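Quick one: structure for this chain?
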Amino acid sequence: MTKGYLIAEAKVTDAAAYAGYKPLAAAAIAQYGGRYLVRGGEITQLEGQWTGAPRLVIVEFDSVEQARKFYDSPEYRAAREARADAADMNMLVVEGI
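Got it. Here's what it folds into:
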């Protein structure tokens, strides 16, 4: 089975509100079997053009389907609502090897 990797880049606009999102997201990720591979940290651009978002998150799931279940779950929906005005977010899921 191939892994599913959720990749998100965020520009936090309200740190206090974003602090409320993080534990909700972490709990939902754990509930759906995900594990953080990257959660923030220093970013060094090596090549090309990136959006410049200062926060990058990569989460590994057992499959793309499991990552989608996480994203569509009521638990993560609540986290997204908590994040609504706290960050500009781009997110995708990619099939891994």
